[in-house]
């Protein structure tokens, strides 16, 4: 025991060796105290210890408050550009949506104004063909089939009592109507994406040059029946959408209208955090154009139907316009936020909307050539996913007037024709300016290469 105690006392009284500090430490300090200067493996001197002990809390706080730093120029410059680009998106998007909206309106007015005239001419030429004088051209066959589909849909939809349909929808609960409206929206998108393929198949069967005559007639009749059934179902679906929207706007309790408007913001959850390429963003932008034009036509139908019931009173019109503007404002706001965050998260420049705009302009310019591959309305349908026949049939059903108002109908038709001609001239002039500007931009970027049309998926 004595030997152990003696050894223990010797270890305590032995001089302590300084600890070695490794130079390969992983943690380095960015801020060095001015008064602390470590020496080379020696114990700090008394002067250094005194200076270190003299630092007070006040000096520490003063150093934290007055501490300086310098921002990294490159990083913060990029952050600022992203911030500016975030607020450029709404303007660039609205320019694209506005031009696409005008093209949808032009295709829609073409169905209401030019298609009846072209259908009448094609019907007369078809009668002459039966006599054996001449054969129908592909464009005339397409006009004849489109006219038959539109006329058949209008006659069938005219048998639906919209007043009874309104009261049936109005008697349902708010939750049922909300679920029903969401189902109608999904079905409308599915019909719009698939319906143009049905019509294209019908038109190509009618215009296909090499095909046996007997088989061609059977296939043509079958596809005509399928196309008529599609347009009829889509028109009834749009009619139900308009009726549900009318119930939401005209009800005393605005809960349904509020829920329907808030449903637009639910769309952000499914869109904002997805990965998007430029082609996917273009498809989403085209879908937004079609959806906005679709809502405008529906709201116009709601206003006309409601004002008929109220004998066109001004007070009721102002109330309707206020609610309709709220619905459109919610739609526009959701589109702005959605596109702004999608482009930010996927590092897509706001200038991509100029390329999308040029793509629409090239479509319009190519449809005016003598050797155009398709009608402008068909190009708009394929590009934007907008099928005007169901909406046109609904408008004809709502705007139908008795034979005593024939003069009013003729006057309305002439007004629509004037709007169609003026609108077509406006969008054609804009298309020329957009194409010219796009080609100048391509020449400035690559003066050796020839300007070419921007690639985008249909």
UniProtKB/TrEMBL annotation:
Q: Where in the cell is it found?
A: Membrane
| Record key words, sorted | Membrane, Transmembrane, Transmembrane helix
Q: Name one Pfam family in it.
A: DUF747
Q: What is its main location?
A: membrane
This protein is called Transmembrane anterior posterior transformation protein 1
InterPro entries from the UniProt entry = Tatp1
**GO annotation (BP), single:** positive regulation of cilium assembly
GO CC, sorted alphabetically, is:
ciliary basal body; endoplasmic reticulum membrane
- According to Swiss-Prot or TrEMBL, what is its membrane topology? Multi-pass membrane protein
Q: Give the residue spans that cross the bilayer.
A: 144-169, 218-243, 410-435
According to its UniProt record, which protein family does this protein belong to?
Answer: Belongs to the TAPT1 family.
């Amino acid at each position: 025991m004595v030997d152990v105690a003696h050894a223990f006392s010797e270890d305590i009284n032995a001089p302590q060796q300084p600890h070695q500090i490794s130079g390969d430490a992983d943690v380095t300090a960015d801020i060095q105290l001015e008064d602390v200067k470590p020496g080379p493996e020696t114990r700090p001197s008394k002067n250094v210890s005194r200076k270190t002990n003299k630092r007070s809390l006040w000096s520490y706080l003063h150093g934290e408050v007055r501490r300086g730093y310098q921002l990294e120029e490159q990083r913060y410059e990029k952050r600022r550009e992203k911030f500016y680009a975030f607020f450029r998106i709404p303007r660039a998007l609205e320019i694209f949506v506005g031009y696409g909206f005008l093209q949808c309106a032009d295709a829609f007015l073409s169905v209401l104004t030019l298609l009846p005239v072209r259908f009448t001419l094609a019907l007369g030429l078809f009668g002459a063909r039966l006599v054996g004088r001449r054969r129908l051209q592909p464009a005339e066959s397409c006009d004849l089939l489109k006219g038959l589909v539109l006329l058949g849909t209008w006659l069938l939809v005219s048998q639906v009592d919209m007043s009874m349909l309104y009261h049936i929808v109005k008697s349902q609960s708010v939750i049922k109507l909300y679920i029903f409206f969401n189902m109608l929206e999904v079905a409308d998108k599915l019909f719009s994406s698939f319906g143009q393929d049905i019509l294209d198949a019908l038109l190509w069967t009618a215009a296909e040059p090499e095909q046996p005559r007997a088989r061609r007639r059977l296939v043509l009749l079958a596809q005509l029946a399928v196309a008529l059934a599609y347009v009829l179902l889509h028109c009834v679906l749009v009619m139900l959408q308009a009726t549900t929207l009318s119930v939401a706007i005209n009800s005393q309790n605005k809960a349904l209208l509020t829920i329907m408007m808030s449903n637009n913001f639910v769309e952000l959850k499914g869109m904002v955090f997805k990965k998007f390429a430029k082609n996917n963003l273009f498809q989403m932008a085209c879908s937004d154009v079609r959806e906005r034009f679709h809502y405008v036509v529906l709201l116009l139908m709601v206003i006309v139907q409601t004002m008929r019931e109220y004998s066109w009173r001004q007070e009721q019109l102002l109330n309707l316009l206020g609610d309709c503007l709220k619905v459109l404002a919610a739609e526009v706001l959701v589109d702005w936020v959605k596109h702004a965050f999608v482009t930010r998260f996927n590092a897509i420049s706001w200038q991509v909307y100029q390329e999308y705009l040029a793509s629409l302009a090239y479509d319009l310019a190519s449809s005016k050539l003598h050797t155009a591959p398709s009608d402008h309305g068909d190009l708009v349908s394929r590009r934007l996913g907008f099928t005007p026949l169901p909406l046109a049939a609904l408008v004809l059903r709502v705007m139908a007037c008795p034979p005593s108002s024939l003069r009013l109908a003729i006057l309305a038709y002439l007004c629509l024709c004037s709007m169609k001609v003026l609108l077509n001239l406006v969008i054609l002039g804009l298309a020329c300016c957009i194409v010219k500007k796009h080609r100048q931009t391509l020449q400035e970027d690559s003066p050796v290469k020839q300007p070419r049309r921007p690639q985008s998926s249909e």
